[in-house]
Write a structure and sequence with these properties.
Helix 3 (about 35-50) crosses helix 7 and helix 5 (about 80-95) runs antiparallel to helix 6 (about 100-110). The protein contains nine helices and four strands; from the N terminus they run H-H-H-H-H-H-H-H-E-E-H-E-E. It has helices at about 5-10, 10-25, 35-50, 55-65, 80-95, 100-110, 120-130, 150-155, 185-205, and strands at about 155-165, 170-175, 210-215, 215. About 55% of the residues lie in helices and about 10% in strands. With about 220 residues, it is an alpha+beta fold. It has a four-stranded mixed sheet with strand order 1-2-3-4.
Length: about 220
């Protein structure tokens, strides 16, 4: 049974993640490399673990998180679908059983806010983990005067925490935002669709999605 740690060490997968991020860099997008996929994989796994899902299902959510952006190697457009197809072949060649391949491919193919739907627990966990990874260190440039709106919003976030509150049956995304770089309104301007998808993902897991910025509950 191939583990998450083995997936992380696979040379081909490392190459695909690195090249996918290189393509994103060429297009001017924020960091989508090992820091991002590593954080997303660990968060997706933690969500299912805290909710009591079986260990192998937790591990498959982590694998989906680690592979979720490899489709950017092909093209940014429809990268979730191309990434799902790439993951299908990679996992099939590694000897994963069809039911596990299906779970991972379904999650990857549904993680993007343009076309994604939280059709499974793994897909829901991946959506929440991916869309909550907003942080200053994802911005590639160093000159704030050159930032576009995505850079400004990510750079303004000095801390980000996604936490399940079982007593509330809620999952909270708590952000600390430096308003000297971006306003809360700009955050919603570019992330509203993502937050709506997070709400649907939380509901799939039996939770309510909550967002707090600088200690103020917004949704």
């Amino acid at each position: 049974m191939t583990s998450y740690e083995q997936i992380k060490k696979d040379p081909a997968i490392k190459t695909y993640i690195a090249q996918a991020d290189a393509s994103m860099a060429a297009l001017g997008f924020t960091e989508h490399s090992f820091a991002h996929v590593g954080r997303v994989s660990e968060t997706a796994g933690r969500i299912l673990q805290e909710l009591g899902y079986p260990p192998r299902q937790v591990e498959l959510a982590k694998i989906a998180g680690y592979l979720h952006d490899i489709g950017n190697l092909v093209n940014r457009v429809d990268h979730s679908q191309s990434g799902a197809v790439m993951a299908f072949r990679l996992l099939d060649n590694m000897g994963f059983p069809p039911e596990e391949i299906a779970m991972v491919a379904t999650a990857i193919g549904n993680h993007d806010e343009g076309t994604g739907v939280p059709v499974s627990a793994e897909a829901a966990a991946l959506i929440l983990a991916d869309k909550s990874d907003v942080r200053r260190t994802r911005v590639r440039g160093k000159d704030p005067h050159s930032f576009d709106i995505h850079d400004r919003v990510n750079y303004s976030v000095t801390s980000s925490e996604l936490k399940i509150h079982k007593e509330q049956a809620a999952i909270w995304l708590s952000l600390e935002v430096d308003p000297s770089f971006s306003s809360v309104m700009e955050y919603f301007e570019i992330f509203m669709a993502r937050m709506i998808l997070c709400r649907k993902a939380a509901e799939k897991l039996g939770l309510e999605f909550k967002l707090a910025i600088n200690g103020q509950e917004l949704i």
